[in-house]
Each structure stands twice: as structure tokens, then as C-alpha cells.
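Handout, section B. The chain below has 136 residues.
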Amino acid sequence: MSANEDNPEGTEGFLQRFDDIPLHKYLGLTLAEVKPDYGRLRLLKTETTPTGIGGSVNGGVLATMVDMASIVAIFSKAFPGTEPAGTADLSITYLRQAQGEWVDAIATIVKRGRQLSTVDVSIVNDQGILLSLIHI
């Protein structure tokens, strides 16, 4: 998606300023890696990270992280004439509590469309343990 009236910075601007977005800063969410059809975000657990059972990262925070990771993967290789429509469906399977110093959301494009794309995301912790599987 290129720059336009609704998005003056385009996808490149969004990716460049990702770490500076206030919500991302609050959550401790940073852009770790981007390549075509792939995005990886890291959430560094801090005292401000909303927690759930046993001090694990809150499930709603993980869902937000997953949604953002899918956007990064989609924006990694936007094509002219496409206009992402937003998240139409998000199904998350929590396999275990999100414990660790940090967690990564790894998003990979399965199918790219003009408005909707299908993305698979996995969440892993600092020990490489799979925490959640997601289909968007």
C-alpha cells in the first residue's frame, strides 16, 4: 500500500515508525524482522506488560501482537492496487502460558489477496517453546 490521503506515510513509513507507536511502546512490542511475506515481532516483558495467570502475558495482549505481526507480514510486500481491509477473522489456540523474558510472534503469508490475506502466526518464547498457533 503506497502513501495516500488516508495513509500519508504508506507501508514503508508504518514499518519505519512501528517501534515508536505509543501502544507498541507501552506493551514493549518491537519490530524484530521483516522480509517478503514474513514479519516477526518481539514483546519484551516489563513491569507494564498486562499479565494473566501465573504472571504470563495476557491473552488479549498476545492477540494484539498477533494482529500487528500479520499487518507487518502483509505490508512487507504490498502490491500496487491493493488496499488491505483489516482483520476479518482471527482464531488463536493457546497451547501454554506465555512465560519468559520475551515472546515473539512470527507471521507468514499463506495467501495474499487484493483486500484480504490469510496469515499463519506462531508465538514462541525466549526458549523457543511454541506457545500459541494462530490463523488469520
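Note. Residues 91 and 135 are 5 Å apart (CA to CA). Compare this with the example in section A.
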